[in-house]
Amino acid sequence: MIHKIKALHDNGKGLSIRAISQELGLSRNTVRKYLRMDENAISEQIEDPSRTKRLDDHRDYLIHLLKEFPKLSAVKIARKLQAKVGELPASDRSIRRYVRTLKEEVASARCAITNPFWTMCRVFSVRWTRVSCAAC
């Protein structure tokens, strides 16, 4: 897609940014962003599409809290993190989302070790079998 945008633009000799965005169904800002990027930045972005999050610096501490207190709410985890680091690096909503994904990771790792049937149930999204998981 990025190479197609660059080919259509052809260093200002081809289509305009507006025409490229209309033809490809992209935002003009997206087209502009890709045109400004050099080839190295494009290849780095394609190779590593993961984004770092502001809470990744505190990931180990949050996982420790969730392993020690699996029923701890995101609000209480945010309070403990705030007591530890001071100003929180993310919004309340971002913290809730981040904690939710960490809870799923910690719970699935714990259940996979103690009960192999639970992992099979998670594949089929059967929620009512959660009661049968001894670790949860």
Explain this structure to me?
With 136 residues, the chain is mostly helical. The protein folds into two domains: 2-47, no CATH class; 54-132, no CATH class. Helix content is 64%, strand content 0%. The chain has helices at residues 2-9, 17-24, 28-36, 39-47, 59-68, 74-85, 92-114, 116-123. Helix 2 (17-24) crosses helix 3, helix 5 crosses helix 7 (92-114) and helix 6 (74-85) crosses helix 7 (92-114). The chain starts with a helix and ends in a 13-residue tail after the last helix. Residues 122-132 have low confidence and may be disordered.
At a glance:
This protein is an all-alpha fold.
Reading the helices and strands in chain order gives: HHHHHHHH
Q: Structural class given helices, strands, pairing?
A: mainly alpha
The low-pLDDT segments are 122-132
> What is the number of strand segments?
0
Instruction: Summarize model confidence as the mean pLDDT.
Output: 79
* Radius of gyration, taken over Cα atoms and rounded to an integer in Å: 22 Å
What is the number of helices?
8
Proportion of residues in β-strands: under 5%
State the end-to-end CA separation.
45 Å
Percent range of helical residues: 55-70%
Major pleated sheet: none
Shape: elongated
Counted up, domains total 2
